[in-house]
Amino acid sequence: MSETTTPPPTNSEFGIGQEQLCSLSTEQSTAALELYGGVVGISNLLNTSLAKGIHGDEADLLRRRRAFGSNNYPRWRRKGFLIFVWEACKDPTLLILLVSAAILLALGIKSKGVKEGWYDGGSIAFAAFIVIVVTAMSEYRQYVQFHDTNEKKRNIHLEVIRGGRRVKISIYDIVVGDVIPLNIGDQVPADGILITPHPLAIDESSIHGESIIVHKDSRAPFLMSGCRVQDGSGTMLVIGVGINTEWGLQMAISSDDPIEETPLQARLNGVATFFGIVGLSVTAVILTVLLARYFTGHTRNLDGNVQFIAGKTRAVDAIHGAVSIVTIAVTSIVVAVPDSLPLTVNFTLAFSLRKLMASKILVRKLFACEMMGSATVICSDKTGTLTMNQMIVVEAYAGGRKIDPPSNGLRISPKLQSLLIEGVAQNTNGNVYLPEGCTGIEISGSPTEKAILHWGVQIGMDFEAARSESSIIHMFPFNAEKKRGGVAIQKADHEIHIHWKGAAEIILARCTWYLDTNDHLMEMSGEKMAFFNQIIEDMAAKSLRCVAIAYRPWKKEDIPVNEEQWAHSSILEDDLILLAIVGLKDPCRPGIKTTVQLCQKAGVKVIMFTGDNINTAKAIALECGILSSFDNAIEPCVIEGREFRALTDEQREEIAEKIVVMGRSSPNDKLLLVEALRKRGHIIAVIGDGTNDAPALYEADVGLAMGIQGSQIAIESSDIILMDDNFPSILKVVKWGRCIYANLRKFIQFNLTISVTALLINVVATLSSGDIPLNAVQLLWVNLIMDTLGALALATEQPTNLLMNLPPVGRREPLISNTMWRNILIQVVYQVSVLLALNFQGSIPGFTHDATDHGIKLKKTLIFDAFVLCQIFNEFNARKLDEFNIFKGVTRNYLFMGIIGLTVVLQFIIVEFLGKFTSTVRLNWKQWFICVIIGFISWPLGCLGKLIPVRHTPINNKFRRILHGRTQMQSGQSTTGERPSYSKLVICCYLIVNLFSRFQRRRTSTHQVLYCSAVTCFVYYQDFQINP
Questions:
Q1: In terms of Cα–Cα distance, which of 186, 257, 252 is closest to 223?
Q2: How far is CA 660 from CA 155, 383, 387, 586, 751, in A?
């Protein structure tokens, strides 16, 4: 290269600058690359060895980052806390409350002066402000946690060559000049140039947006960051990192990922919308009735005077009265609409993610955690998942006889030994590194490659010397479909050898010759073929992975001259000469059998699929407890991938549920199994670690990948990463997934009990007397208990072992079960009955109605205090939906106990010291005792209610059948099944009307209300007995 054609360097420490490298990467011009001397010239300018990589010491890395930047990109600034405060303020109901508070504040100050006039508006504004701040704080904490989780999932690890050895580093630690090995499924981590002359098939869809497969070779050697290796293997030289790459620029623009909505949140939005419509409708009725009574002169002050008289009442007073009514109605909406249900999922997920992270489980996608609670089938890969992925050669046959021990190279003839060493050294993606001055060696690669390389060293292989004695002409990357990989090499004497390695029975089927102990080439007779097949079966029965090594010579003049000829030269795979069969042992993970048994006990079926021999698969399945005995190891429980693949779609769906073990399965076979199971209604979790598991991981409802041994594409295709590669960790994921549903149901029951009770109290009171017992500030405090504090207390319950004794939560199972409806109904009937009895001249010990201002305030204070205490006691009931011991484990949940204690203290302060703001009066100890007793009764009542049996059929299905029956009757069809109980409906309506009329006449007592409630419950129970 002449002096005039060499581009001028712009970097004092290296022979080439960042601008030139960026230009090369952007233009992808091979002509410009040749000006620098090709990839060899670029490596020299970057002070990099194409064989050994960079030195990799701290000084070298610092120098390269300073000159060319780091492999990172600028993040968007995190949202600040004030942003969440602003978003919380956008809630329409809270906005209306704040506007109403401002109006009341202005009117109150004008009419009563600053000293007394600010209480109504100020207290409402302050209460609304507290709700806004608490909501913003909870959402901000969840945002920070989810943001941190996203950062961790982006931090993938990969191998680079530094100082002659392969080391695993973070993708963020890659520097310009690094040499990176690439294999099928790997993501290209930076811009680079292909070093090896063997072609790679690259998927550039991440850059172009379309799934385009581009072939890279010496004529088109430029690789772009973010693309993925579709086929082939090789090494690349990094020339661009971070924002100096197209991928880095895209990530910098789109790095602020929003938190996705999970399926459970979407379902809860539907529930909240339904109850919200009901709440809004009822509140509209309340508002209409109150305004009508007010402007028609039917509303009186505490002193008995009419509040509004047309033509006489001042406009300021009229506006003040109307705004007060609107404020109460809007506040009723805040309590009646359960809009916090989706927010509770965030609470539960955030808590679960933090606990799972502490157990070295990284949840990449939020829906996966909740979905695991519904998993009915777990499909697991064998190698590296059920087993330790620490393989070692324990048996070897070479020259037609057993080598015992397998490391005894002296028992192998010279020619056979030479061919074995040649094949092991060249036909591999692994590496053997001998540190200077050290006696030990370092072997890198996949577990299978490492085991075979280690065996090669034991029989006398010098890795570097063996690779230097021949050159690679072409590589046939290992293919999970064909179960084999090969390499074509040319020796120093120009002799051509094609080496193959792969699944023993597949390689053996292509062998027509073998070398005996005397290095004689022997024909593979039927008897000898049966002998070798028996060896493979014996190894497989010992749960060994069987690998065969073979080769064939080839004439130089017949070698293909281009890629197309190589791809279509199937004859290169036939007429092989068998060299050796080795058996690799991969021990099962500790505790794997117990884990499988616990999964089965929890109603989760465990299926194993593997690329290994069917006999090896059976042996491992028995060892892991997936198969209970050899008697079960028959079709269709045990099946080969090719047999399953050959079935029709209908046949696959039919036998998919019977399959327990699938051997010799390809990636497509695993995918077909997952698809068939999903069509049968199962929720599938797939666990894997290899590139061949990626399609199944992606298709499954939940994909779990191993974080240490897992390939890049497996991790990218997964939803959850087991950072410690510990299969038993899946039990924790299942348990926490079920815990999310359980905690959510606890909160739903608690939340709806408050909403329905508050709504009914306000409706009945409004329709009967035009007065609402609970004012705006009191309702906002109840809303705080119901939403934020209730979610914190109930959504953070720890999972219990009892959850694993229950069946999985169905995909279509209602969020509100019949058990929950029963519990809600019992508590609502009790609370509404007692509180209405207090409101409508009912008598209780220690309290009589007083028409004075103080007496009315005392009555409303008692109702407010009893209502809040009922919720505090009922919060314990919500912990155990169908268990009698509601206190089990409560002392271990410090957050729950702390929130209960905080709520009680704040309630006492509100009643006793903040009467000016909440319109309450102080209560004596007797009145407090009465309120506590009213709340306490919810405990024994809840236990008694659990004795009432409930249908297993969801209540919404019952309604659907009733409506269907009514449709059939209207169309004249016969309905012999379940009919609607119209007589019971009439009885219930009569009781409600009778109760309402008694309220109107002010003659209802406590025992009458309880009597009507009991009759209603009896009717419900009888209906259950008649129509179970």
A1: 186
A2: 35, 16, 17, 20, 43
Q: Which of residues 773 and 904 earns the better pLDDT score?
A: 904
Closest CA to 943 of 881, 1014, 900, 875: 881
Task: Measure the CA–CA gap between 958 and 960, rounded to whole angstroms.
Answer: 5
Chain centre to alpha carbon of residue 760: 39
Strands (E) located in 717-852 = 720-722
φ, ψ of residue 2 in degrees (nearest 5):
-75, 165
Q: CA 180 to CA 194: how far, in whole Å?
A: 10
Whether the model pTM is above 0.90 = no
CA distances from 110 to 106, 302, 328 (A): 6, 21, 21
Give the strand pairing for 213-216 and 576-585.
unpaired
Of 267-281, 475-489, 849-863, the least confident: 267-281
The mean pLDDT value for 187-196 works out to: 89
**263 vs 345: CA distance, rounded Å:** 10
Using DSSP, how many helices (H) and how many strands (E) does the chain show? 38, 28
The angle, 0 to 180 degrees and rounded to 10, between the axes of the packed helices 119-154 and 315-336 is 30
214 CB-near residues (< 8 Å, 6+ apart): 201, 202, 204, 220
- Among residues 792, 682, 800, which one has the least CA distance to residue 735? 800
- Do 285 and 763 touch, CB atoms closer than 8 A? yes
Q: Taking Cα atoms as reference points, which of 229, 233, 235 lies closest to residue 213? A: 229
Give the β-pairing of 470-479 and 442-444. Answer: unpaired
Burial class (CB in 10 A: 0-12, 13-18, 19+), 452: buried
Residues in the chain: 1028
CB contact at 8 A, 719 and 361: no
- CB-based contacts of 96: which residues, under 8 Å, 6+ apart? 326, 330
- Going by their DSSP bridges, the two strands 431-433 and 401-402 should be labelled as unpaired
- Looking at per-residue pLDDT, the higher value among 71 and 953 belongs to 71
- Helix (H), strand (E) at residue 187: none
Give me the half-sphere count of Cα atoms (radius 13 Å) on the Cβ side of residue 435.
Answer: 9
Q: Rounded to 10 degrees, what is the CA torsion of 842, 848, 851, 856?
A: -80
**β-bridge pairing 576-585 and 511-515:** parallel
Quick check: 688 and 697 in contact, CB under 8 A?
Answer: yes
Question: Which positions ≥6 away from 709 have C-beta within 8 Å?
Answer: 384, 389, 447, 689, 725
- Report strand pairing: 511-515 vs 521-523: antiparallel
Structure tokens at 166: 């392969």
Residue, of 850 and 9, whose pLDDT is higher: 850
Classify residue 271 by burial, with Cβ atoms within 10 Å: 0-12, 13-18, 19+.
Answer: middle
Question: Rounded mean pLDDT of the chain?
Answer: 80
Name the residue among 499, 544, 506, 529 with its Cα closest to residue 664.
506
- The pLDDT of residue 892 is 86
Do the beta carbons of residue 164 and residue 52 sit within 8 Å?
Answer: yes
The answer to whether the CB of 161 falls within 8 A of the CB of 53 is: yes
At residue 337, φ and ψ (nearest 5 deg) are: -90, 115
Question: Hey, which residues are catalytic here?
Answer: 381
> CB of 190 within 8 A of CB of 69?
no
| pLDDT band of 187, cuts 50, 70, 90 | confident
Give the Cα-Cα-Cα angle 877, 334, 783 (nearest 5 degrees). 40
Contact call for residues 855 and 849 (beta carbons, < 8 A): yes
Q: Give φ, ψ of 313 to 5 degrees.
A: -70, 135
**Which runs of E-coded beta strand occur in 492-537?**
496-503, 511-515, 521-523
Dist. CA 464–CA 859, nearest whole Å = 93
